[in-house]
Design goal:
Layout: H1 4-8, H2 13-46, H3 52-102, E1 108-110, E2 116-118, H4 136-168, H5 183-202, H6 210-222, H7 227-237, H8 241-249, H9 258-261, H10 263-280, H11 286-298, H12 312-317, H13 327-344, H14 352-356, H15 377-386, H16 389-397, E3 400-401, E4 412-413, H17 415-422, E5 428-429, E6 435-436, H18 438-453, H19 470-483, H20 487-491, H21 497-506, H22 508-516, H23 554-564, H24 568-589, H25 603-630, H26 636-643, E7 652-657, E8 660-665, E9 669-674, H27 682-689, H28 695-698, H29 701-706, H30 709-724, H31 726-732, H32 739-753
Antiparallel strand pairs: 1-2, 3-4, 5-6, 7-8, 8-9
Helix pairs in contact: 2-3, 3-4, 4-5, 5-6, 5-7, 6-10, 7-10, 13-16, 15-18, 16-18, 16-19, 18-19, 18-21, 21-24, 22-23, 23-25, 24-25, 24-27, 24-31, 25-30, 25-32, 26-30, 27-31, 31-32
Length: 772
Amino acid sequence: MLKFDQVLHARLGSLKEAVTVWSETVTKLEKTKEKAETGLRNKADKADWKGENAGVTQAFVRKTAKEFGDALTEATSIRNILRDAQSEFQAAKSELEKLVGEAPGKGIRIDPDGVVSYLIHPDRRAKDYDGPKPEQADFEAMRAAIKAAITRADEADDVASRALRGLVGNDKNNFSDTSYDSLTAASKAQDAEDAHAAYELYKKGDDATPEEIDKLNALFKANQKDPFFAERFALEVGPKGSMEYWADMGDPSDGSRLGADHQDKLKELQKNWSLTLATATHSTSSDMEQWKADVIKAGSEPIQTRGSNPYGFQVMSNLMRVGDYDDKFLKDYGNALVVTERKMTHDGRLPPDRAWQQLGGMPNHLNWQGGDLGTDPMVGFMEGLGHNPKASTDFFSGSIDLTPENGKGDKKLDPFDYFTKDRDWPEELNDKGDRTKEPGYNALGHALESATTGHPYDADTEGLKDVRTKENAEVMQKVVERYGSDPKVMHKQPGIDDSLGKMGAAYIDELNRSLETDSDTATHEKKNSPFGFNDDKGKSRFGPEFDTKLLWNRGDAVNFMGIVSQSETGHSTLSAAESLYTTSVLDQVGPKPGTPFDDRDLTDARTTLRIGSEAQGILDETRMAQIDKDYEKDSEEHKKAVGKTTEWVKFGVGAVAAGGVVALTGGAGGVLVPLAAETVGGAVVTFIGMEADDIGEKYEKDELLKKKSDDLSDEALAMGKENSLRPGIAYANAEGWSEKDRNYLDEELVNYVRTSRLHARDNSLPDPYEKD
């Protein structure tokens, strides 16, 4: 990969000169070729040679004449490659020069290595500073433009270098007759060559050696996001080809050792194959449209291998676990999959595992990514939705026609209700050899995450933004209604709790709006609420009806937050999100550090801290109640669980994004927590840098176990109370306050909200779940 400074300071004079020289060479060879064809070859063809001359010399002369033509072809191709490469390099270099020149006028600095930062940091600006004040979105746009320019040069470099090596070749006695009229043509030729090489390796099936699997993986990786390669490979393998290959690879009866000895290679191959097919589905060519239709059609057909016959849907769903598949194809595929399952289960009268079980022999090993063997096709499909937010949102927002072949049929199925309530998810064999429903509910959670947040559930934190729409929020309303209605819904769906925590974190702003209301059933926010700042005008991103209307009433918010926080991971994620969001609201509604203020200016700050402290109390109280229900008092398990209740304070921050902060919690990975404003304020910065104790670190293990559970619980709740004050402490200690103001804020705000924690017990908190 080329670096920023290499592209910016690239000296292209020699390359430009090389293009000129090769152009001159082409002109000379055109004349030489003409002489060779009209003179040398024509005379040889007309000569009446006898004997050995006719069989040797005449053929040699003809071959020699042809070499002049090949020399012209090769020289022309080299010139064309160098010409286009020089053009691409120059365009990338000019773009970087332009960005570097424009950056200071936007208040941005670009370092020699391409790192983007403030030209003058806000903390170092003079009081009368009136220069440009870049926002996070400006930095992201600059980084994206820099990356695009470097990628353009890098791709040109890769294609050109490979093309030139191929043109020169290894034959010292012959010129190449390969013709490239442009760098684009060379790129497509390379893609086609790679696609065919991959196809030749594909034909070996599970007879391939480990080294050949490595070669196949390398070809996929080198062309991972190349649409031309992906389409050529998909079409060459054919609609059923991928299914037959993958079913054969997972057939345990044919003696192949790949699955036994090289699971890591098959795991990588599954990922790369999935990414390649995902890229291919974005093509709208007539051949690919037919490919997509044929894949769906083959879903309900058995794929026969030596010792097994899984359905096409079972195989294909496992090749959807990774990658950005075309939204329409994914939705059409999912609809057809559900229709097939309902038919096979006689409209739900039989459990789904009866539909997908294989009769006789060992089940196919269709998934090598871990978690399950891949028998239930809904698991892989849900993972596919988890990487495709728009398709996931549309899928859970719509309905499925269960009688598509009957134009008069009106039998509909609600996919949200079906997957979250009605479907009896089959047990799957996990990596430990245990039968569990966790893989299915884990995948369902991933799909709901993408449907509610607008991001792939495992999205890279770099460049992550708050992109929630009204459509996302409408799915989230369903989630809160379903999982906040009864604790047993979440607890009977193992593996979904971490996703519910991440969804709650993504809507922590709307949940806080609901918590502020006085009535458990009110559907409108409290007048002059400090919460709900979704844009610079205080309007809701979910449409004008939600400027004052709530997504949920207070009772629904309390129930959802309480039930989700009964889980260790749910509690951890929501606690971190609540603290970050509360701190950001203080930055938005409180007096700005260094400005004069009076007691009336702290009204919104007090409200913010009161609601934040009460929310943290709800989370802690419900988690503690669940621990008491799960474990026997004074047992080692009970004490350890109590000790973990304050571990969330150790969460890190992966990135500060536009409109949000990516919090990296111990149990849930990256969580985009929305902020009250696009600009990250001083209180948030101070909060992120604060250190706090947790009860698990307060005691050594032996000392922890010596204490009584009730004493530990009291200490944990007391520590939770102190942790809920951290946003106020961060605000009071943000840079810019005088010592006098800092002390006043600490006393007025922090001490004020200490009693707010007690209000958590005034709520009608959800009952803990009692296991069977």
